[in-house]
Amino acid sequence: MSITYREVKADILRQITQGTLAPGSAMPNEVDLAASYGCARATVNRAMRELADDGIIERRRKAGTRVRQNPIRQVRLNIPIVGQEIEELGATYRYALVHGQAEPAPNWLRARMALQRDDRVLHLTCMHYADGAPYQHEDRWINLSALPEAEQHDFSEVGPNEWLVSTVPFTDAQISFHAVQADATIADYLDCTEGDALFQTERTTWLEGRTITFVQLTYRRGHRVTMQY
Amino acid sequence: MSITYREVKADILRQITQGTLAPGSAMPNEVDLAASYGCARATVNRAMRELADDGIIERRRKAGTRVRQNPIRQVRLNIPIVGQEIEELGATYRYALVHGQAEPAPNWLRARMALQRDDRVLHLTCMHYADGAPYQHEDRWINLSALPEAEQHDFSEVGPNEWLVSTVPFTDAQISFHAVQADATIADYLDCTEGDALFQTERTTWLEGRTITFVQLTYRRGHRVTMQY
DNA sequence: TTACGCCTTATGTCTATATCTTTTGAAAAA
DNA sequence: TTTTTCAAAAGATATAGACATAAGGCGTAA
């Protein structure tokens, strides 16, 4: 077999990292590269397409391909559901429903979830434990107009996150990470001190333009999200 | 022209989201799909490959392709350098070097950066401002054994991050996000109250197995990292 | 029954060629 | 000079056919 697209990709990357192909410089076109590697143009194309996707090079029709001045640094971040996250740590997962009640949406939440004036929400408060110790506090609101079956569902055994991903998979979401100070309630749940700095994730989820759910996930003290690139 | 791989991808995705193809179910093989779409196998292959890459379907040689039971939720997170980040907010960026000194690596850092006993590091403390207000505090250590030219460089005008990405692009890195409480020093720099919960990023960067730099980036109060998927 | 190894099959990849689309730069028109 | 138009260039994508590779499953031998 002749040269593979992986080898072409690796060779081009090597030339870039070793400085043979300088940042900002133009690269030969696909036809010429294919000729010099002695392979088909499609093979070069795939290698170049992946490098562009990785943020290493920049491609423009007619203008050609050039090495990016500064490579785009990007990571892929998996968003696991908390049970899996805990079990991957090698710990035992336990879930508890703290509180669940259907109620009219408060104003701040109506704005946040883009709800109508009379929309009702299911407010759930849950705890997730790793090896018996508090791991994550979940404060969730589900839009009952968009997902009425949530009101009948029993969340005492299975967490709302798990139920939602199996009931409405393939949603869109916006996620945000930030830091919050533990208030007395959260400190109590997460077994930490009031005022502690905690890592919090907020997530709003849509299905076909309708807001399904908004959730605040507050992690135990010292939680980290790590990534490689 | 006949059907495109994008259309095939969109159609398969539609079937999955609409439930025609149930989660966990096996899909027809590429040859059959190509026949039913009236296109080449390569076209179907690209559509399916991208769906697999998106975490929607699962492919295994011989075993075939099936719809994932729970789609993998993943986001792509760009790691901008702080100047760009601030300018994208529409604010004016200003940089200041607070402190810079070459010194022997303290023990905790030696462990963290996997340094030898006698390795020296350049310790830099910098501030980044958006429209004149504190935005980010940078505490950085550069391994002088790996990057001796850093010692001669003047970091009073251009931040170490910018200098590093142009001097040693194409590095590997591990990033971590977490929350910290502002101590008196940080509170002073970031113009917040001691004890405030702040978002912090830590990053260790390698080049060919050697640790280049370790940095702690502490953001102003209320900083958020947001993503879509 | 169990373990090993072959056969088949589905995906993975390459080739060679062709057409489509976007974009740039130059020529032509105002 | 400025604007419009157009052709060429380069990447984007499609096709048909071929071979490569991994792995499930079955048959055979221990």
Features:
elongated; DNA-binding; Chorismate lyase; alpha+beta; 8 helices; transcription (chains A, B); six-stranded antiparallel sheet; 229 residues; homodimer; Arc Repressor Mutant, subunit A
Largest β sheet strand count, sense and barrel closure of chain A = 6 strands, antiparallel
* CATH architecture classification of the largest domain in chain A: 3-Layer(aba) Sandwich
Share in helix of chain A:
25-40%
Strand order of the largest sheet of chain A: 4-5-6-9-8-7
- The helix-and-strand class of chain A reads alpha+beta
Domain HTH gntR-type (chains A, B): 2-70
Keywords (chains A, B): DNA-binding, Transcription, Transcription regulation
Organism (chains A, B): Aliiroseovarius zhejiangensis
Pfam families (chains A, B): GntR, UTRA
What does this structure look like?
Two copies of one chain form a homodimer. The first copy, chain A, has 229 residues and is α+β, with helices and mostly antiparallel strands. Chain A folds into two domains: 63 residues, Arc Repressor Mutant, subunit A; 138 residues, Chorismate lyase. Helix content of chain A is 29%, strand content 36%. Chain A has eight helices and ten strands. In chain A, strands 4-5-6-9-8-7 form a six-stranded antiparallel sheet. A two-stranded antiparallel ribbon of chain A has the order 1-2. In chain A, helix 1 packs across helix 3. The longest helix of chain A is centred in the first third of the chain and has 13 residues. The two termini of chain A are 31 Å apart. The interface between A and B is large, with 44 and 44 residues. Chain A binds a DNA duplex (30 and 30 nucleotides) through helix 3.
